[in-house]
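call fold(seq) -> C-alpha cells
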Amino acid sequence: MHDENGPNLLLDDPGGDGIHRRRFGESFIVSCVYLLLTAALTFPLCLHMGSRICGDVGDNYAFLWQFRWFSTALTELHVSPFYAPSLNYPAGSSILLNPTTLFNTGLSIPLQRIFPVVTVYNLLILFSFWMAAVAMYLLARHLALSAPASFVAGFVYAFSSYHFAHALGHLTIVSIEWIPLFTLYLLKSLQTRRPAHLAAASLFLVLCALCSWYFLLACGLMVCTTTAFFALPWRRGRSVRTVLSAAAILCLTLAILAPILVPMMLEAAGRPAVAGHAPANYPADLAGFFVPGFTSTFGMLFLPIWTRFRANPIESSTFIGYGVLFLAGLALLKGPRRAVSFWAFTLAVFFTLSLGPFLNVLGRDLRIPLPYLLVQHLVPFASVAGVPARLHVITSLCLSVLCATGVDRLFARARTGLSGMRMWAPAGLCLLLLVDHLHVPVYLSRHTVSPFYEALSRDRGEYALIDFTPRGKALFCQSVHGKGLVRGYVARGLAAQGGAFLHTAAARCLFGGLGRRDPAGEGCACDGVQARSTLERFHVRYLVYPKIASPAEAGEILAAGSRDAASGDMERLLSALSPAGRGAGPPGRAVSRLVREIREREGLPGTVLFALKARAFFASHTESLPYNTISPFVPESERTVRDQWSLPVVYEDGEIRVYSADFGTGSRGFTDPTGGRPNR
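ret:
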C-alpha cells in the first residue's frame, strides 16, 4: 500500500483515481451536511443574498465591477477585458496586474444572466466555504483518516478565522477550495509518477492560480518543500524521478498559464515602480495565531491585543483555535511518526514564511530576520505579492490534516477508556471546535446605489467624474453610470500609469500631490478659475464625496437599536479606533483603558456582553470597522472644492454629496442630472 523506500504520507491508495466508489454515498451525505453548516455559520448571509453583500463596502465592490466589465467586454464588445478605457480617464488603464480572480469572474458571467450581480458574488463566497470543506474532506479520506476525522478536517479548514476574515472583501484569497485537491494529486504524482496524476495536479494548480496569484506562489513553494521532503536523503534513481515529476507539474502549469502570465510579467518588468504591498507591513504576528481576530464572535474581547498588530485586522486574522492546537499537538505526540513528519515539516516552513521578513510580536518588529527575506529576493516577481500573512493558507491546510489525525488518536484512546470518556470526549471536542470557529453574525453591508448614479446613466454625454467614494464602491458605481473615472480603484499600477490630469495643480489639490501630504488644508495653489478651466479641459463634470459618519452618530445608531446606556462606551470605542483617536497614541492603549473601566463598573459578564454587542454592531455597520476609515485627505479635498473653488452642490443624499464643475455658458452648460433641485 505504501512505498517503503519513501516517506509514509498516509495515502491509502496512491495509485487510485478519484473518489472510491464505496465512498460516493458517504461523500454525498457529508457534502449535504457541509452545505447546511455553510448556511448556518455564515448567517444571516443566506437571508439577504440580493439586498446585502458579504463584507464591508470595499474590495468586494471592485469585484462586482470586474464581473460586469468582463461580461460586457467578452460578450458584447468583444474586446480584451484586461484594458479598461473607463479608468484613468481619458487614457484608460491596464488591469493585468489587478487581482482579477479569473475563475470566479468566468463563473460569474453565465450566473449574471440568471441572478443580480450582488447575488452572484454572495453565491461565490458561499461556494468557497462549501467546496473548501468538501475538498479538504476528500484529501483527508485519501490520507486513510476516518470519516469523522476527515469531517473535522474539512470543518477546520473551511471555517477558519483566516477564511472568514478574507470573506470581508478578498474574493481572491477566500477561494481556497482547490488547494486540498491540488495537494492530493501532488502527493499522488510524487509517489506514483503517473501521467494522469501529473496532469490532475497541474490542472488543480491552474485553478488555484486562476483564483488568486498568491496561491500560485504558495502552491509553487509547496511543490518545492514537498519535493525536498521526498527527495532527501538523496537516492539517485528515486530522487531524480521525484524532482522530474515536480518539474513536470510546474512546467505544465506555467505553459497553460503562459498566455496570461507572460503579459503580466512584461508589464510588471516594464513598470518597476509598480509593486504590491510592502512585506514588512503585512506579516502574520506571532501572537495572532493564539488570539481570536475581529471576525470571531468573541473577537472583541481581544480587541486591545489585535489592534496592536502591524497588519490590518483582515491580514492579521490567523487565529488557529485552541481545539485545533490541542488536536494537532496530540497528533504530533501520538500520531504515526513518518506520516505526521511531512505535515509537521510543511507546517513549520509555511508558518515561518507567513511571519514575514522580520519577526513581529504584538506589533513590535524585533528585527530578527526570517526566511521570507530569501523568498522576497529569490522568487521572481514575489514583490508584487507582498503579503506574507496570506501564506497562512498552507499552514491552515497542514493544521487541518494534523487536527484530523489527532481526532483519530483521541477516539482510539476513548474507545479503550471509560464509558464516560467515550461519551464526553466527542461532545467536548465538538463544542471547543465550534467556539473556535464561530463567526456569526457575519459582516454584511447594505447594498445601495445612489439615485445620482442612476440619473447619470440616462445622460448620453461623454465626460468624467472624480469619485471619492471609498475604495471599490466608486468603481462599481461606474458600471452603473457608465462615465469615465479619473483614477479609479485598481490594486496595482494605476497611479504609476498616470494621466495628464493627475499632474495638474488642480489634481494636486484634490489628491494630495499623488500620494504625498495633501496641501489642501494649507492653502491650494490653484484658485477657482484655474480649477474650473482645468476640469473643463479634461471633461470632468462632477466631483463626488462620501458622507462621513462621526463616532457620535454611530453611538446614536447603537442606542436607537438597543436603547442601551452603554452606547457611550461604544462611542468611546469608535473614537479610539478613528484616525483622530489614533493621533493621541496607539489605539490598543485607549481600548485597554475602556475595557478596564467597563470591567470595574460592570464586572466580567458586563464586559463580555459589551464585547458581543460591539461585535454585532460592527457586523451590521461595516462602515465603522477599525480599518475602514476615510483617508484624511478626502475631507480636506472637499473643503478646497467647497470653500476655495466655490463649486456648487448639485446633489446630496444620505451617502454622497456632489459638486459641479460648472462649465459656464454655451451649449455645454451644466444641467442637473437628477432633473430637479438638489436633494437636501
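The two ends are 75 Å apart (CA to CA).
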